[in-house]
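Ops channel
N.P.: pipeline sanity check, posting one input/output pair.
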């Protein structure tokens, strides 16, 4: 094999391919949304960067790159950012600058965790990768339990309440800053159960109920004592603040806009409904934490998940929950009130992940995470800035700020000439362009460590290697069948809403006389049509899930057979295997995305679906032409990463401050915004000022959410 002096990962063509891979994924993520959409983009980019690295050991780890790359990128998707984008366009000076700072932060966190997941697959010894799957499965089990009990528990806590996962989610008694705190808690629960499972001996386990009961009893007693000395209400007042401005006056009526008793506060809804149970429950949790702090081992990488979930909860409690009380007059320490505050938890995940990597001799992962985060932060804020500059051509807002009346000839002439330009799908431009920058972030970060991390020696024929083979198959099946399922199943609702209603839905009349539109029931062929048979049917979503499940079962059987005796259709080359995985994943999601858009097609979708399809063609060609099995990268191991890490943090802070000022100043130079009282606050969100969104549009106990 020919060794080359330059780094293959830094070739322009290779960086472009990783960029376009993540751009495709990000464009599709914009349609499917949330964590699973981001995970698809992360998996696609991680596979590409491994195949183009010039390292055979990374190519052989493509399943792990895909799996951990997907997990890393999925975390950032819980952050709310649409309101932040609106801040940058609001015209209010402090809100705009805050918007650029916040969008940098969101992009940084998203890309930093995506980079950490991808780099973990590249840097960690194989035994760490293999062993971490067991605690991960325990966390998955805990999440399954959460999915089964969350809604019934909420209904039990608040019988008859009308809440959902959209406009009325804040009415859920478990609601807490619209954040994923339950997921963080159940991740810790999964780690705790795994810790108990993998220990040898039972002596320490016997202390668990003692700590739990003792903690609960102590908490109960403390609450009673606080009540006895009349300190309970003072403590509640000290630790609680309203999620809104009780002094805000409705400008049209001159009276208080909202009833102060109707505001949510910084604690879960059920705290106010069941205050008598807070003491023993907090004590119970404290007792469990103390037990695992004293006796927990958290082996096989489960400690990583403890650092991540624990970091999430600590940061969440420290910032919006408790710290926000100090800044209640400014809406608290909240990024986009009244929207989700998952950003605080994600900050904790980033800190916890970085600490764990440093303490477990995986410092290159922390460095790659920081490199990726800097580029991702600049990318998100920068693409929003570019989008806004491009929208300045023929902008009705600029014309209005210049004093042109909407019915004037000049105004009509200019806006008519630029109407099609203004009416394009600019948000898709933001999504796909930002995805491309994220790809560059991953390519650069992984190329940096590719020449500094020693080659992993992994013998395919060794006994240890054979023991962990199931994790490779699990990773591939989770990406190709699991990840795609959780995205594509969303198409069923789109088809049901936009195709022939009589086929996809039915109307049910309840005993109260109220009617409800629910999914249709489709009979099983032949048997479901027999006389007197009216129960052999399923909803469209159930039919979809059954079919996908059968396909997954077939894939599992094929993998089992291949492990016993290799099948000719599955290539032997690591590069070829990676290319196959990439192309299958790519085209499943590209076709599914087109199916999703087709039912409501209009020409504006060309900027999304046609561009995605075109990019997928380009990516397919480049993926087959660019990787070269005959090249390798020269390794010069880094002895001390600390100076590098410190310099990167200096660059991160400089990039944040300089870019935000540049974006703010140039934006305001072009748009010439008027004074605050002449801005259109109904169309744009503002974070600060007398008409800030958290003041004028709070989530109320009896109102619709935002």
């Amino acid at each position: 094999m020919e060794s080359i002096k330059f780094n293959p990962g830094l070739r322009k063509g290779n960086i472009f391919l990783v960029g376009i891979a993540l751009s495709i994924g990000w464009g599709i993520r914009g349609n499917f949304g949330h964590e699973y959409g981001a995970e698809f983009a992360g998996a696609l980019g991680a596979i590409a960067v491994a195949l183009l690295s010039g390292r055979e050991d990374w190519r052989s780890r493509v399943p792990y790159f895909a799996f951990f790359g997907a997990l890393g990128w999925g975390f950032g998707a819980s952050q709310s950012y649409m309101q932040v984008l609106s801040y940058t366009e609001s015209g209010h000076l402090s809100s705009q600058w805050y918007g650029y700072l916040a969008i940098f932060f969101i992009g940084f966190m998203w890309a930093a965790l995506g980079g950490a997941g991808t780099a973990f697959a590249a840097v960690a010894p194989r035994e760490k990768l293999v062993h971490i799957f067991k605690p991960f499965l325990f966390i998955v089990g805990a999440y399954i339990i959460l999915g089964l009990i969350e809604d019934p528990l909420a209904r039990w806590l608040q019988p008859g309440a009308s809440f959902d996962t959209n406009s009325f989610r804040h009415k859920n008694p478990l609601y807490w800053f619209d954040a994923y705190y339950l997921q963080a808690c159940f991740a810790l629960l999964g780690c705790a159960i795994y810790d108990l499972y993998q220990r040898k001996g039972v002596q320490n386990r016997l202390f668990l109920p003692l700590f739990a009961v003792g903690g609960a009893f102590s908490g109960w007693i403390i609450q009673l004592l606080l009540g006895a000395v009349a300190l309970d209400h003072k403590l509640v007042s000290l630790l609680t603040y309203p999620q809104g401005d009780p002094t805000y006056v409705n400008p049209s009526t001159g009276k208080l806009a909202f009833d102060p008793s109707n505001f949510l506060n910084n604690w879960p809804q059920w705290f106010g409904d069941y205050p008598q149970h807070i003491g023993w429950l907090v004590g119970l949790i404290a007792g469990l934490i103390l037990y695992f702090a004293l006796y927990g081992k958290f082996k096989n990488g489960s400690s990583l998940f403890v650092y991540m979930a624990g970091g999430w909860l600590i940061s969440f409690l420290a910032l919006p929950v408790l710290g926000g009380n100090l800044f209640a007059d400014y809406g608290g320490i909240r990024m986009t009130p009244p929207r989700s505050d998952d950003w605080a938890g994600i900050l904790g995940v980033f800190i916890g992940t970085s600490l764990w990597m440093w303490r477990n001799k995986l410092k290159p992962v922390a460095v790659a995470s920081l490199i990726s985060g800097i580029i991702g932060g600049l990318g998100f804020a920068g693409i929003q800035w570019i989008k806004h500059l491009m929208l300045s051509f023929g902008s009705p807002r600029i014309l209005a700020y210049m004093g042109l009346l909407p019915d004037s000839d000049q105004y009509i002439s200019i806006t008519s000439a630029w109407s099609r330009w203004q009416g394009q799908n600019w948000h898709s431009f933001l999504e796909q362009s930002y995805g491309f920058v994220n790809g560059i972030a991953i390519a650069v970060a992984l190329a940096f460590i590719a020449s500094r991390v020693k080659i992993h020696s992994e013998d395919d024929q060794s006994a240890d290697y054979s023991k962990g083979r199931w994790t490779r198959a699990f990773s591939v099946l989770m990406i190709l069948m699991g990840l795609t399922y959780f995205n594509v199943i969303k198409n069923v609702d789109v088809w049901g809403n936009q195709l022939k209603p009589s086929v996809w839905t039915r109307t049910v009349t309840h005993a109260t006389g109220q009617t409800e539109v629910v999914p249709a029931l489709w009979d099983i062929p032949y048997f479901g049509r027999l006389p007197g048979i009216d129960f052999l049917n399923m909803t469209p979503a159930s039919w979809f899930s059954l079919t996908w499940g059968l396909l997954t079962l077939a894939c599992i059987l094929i993998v089992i057979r291949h492990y016993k005796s290799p099948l000719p259709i599955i290539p032997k080359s690591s590069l070829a295997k990676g290319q196959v995985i990439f192309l299958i994943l790519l085209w499943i999601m590209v076709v599914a995305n087109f199916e999703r858009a087709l039912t409501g097609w209009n020409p504006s979708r060309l900027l999304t679906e046609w561009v995605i399809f075109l990019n997928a063609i380009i990516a397919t060609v480049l993926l087959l032409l660019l990787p070269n099995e005959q090249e390798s990268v020269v390794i010069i191991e880094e002895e001390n990463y600390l100076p590098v890490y410190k310099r990167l943090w200096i660059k991160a802070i400089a990039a944040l401050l300089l870019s935000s000022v540049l974006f703010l100043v140039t934006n305001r130079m072009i748009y010439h915004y008027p004074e605050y009282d002449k801005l259109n606050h109904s169309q744009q969100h503002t974070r600060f000022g007398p008409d800030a969104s958290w003041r004028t549009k709070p989530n109320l106990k009896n109102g619709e959410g935002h």
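N.P.: looks fine end to end. Strands lie at 2-4, 505-509, 515-519, 522-523, 537-538, 631-633.
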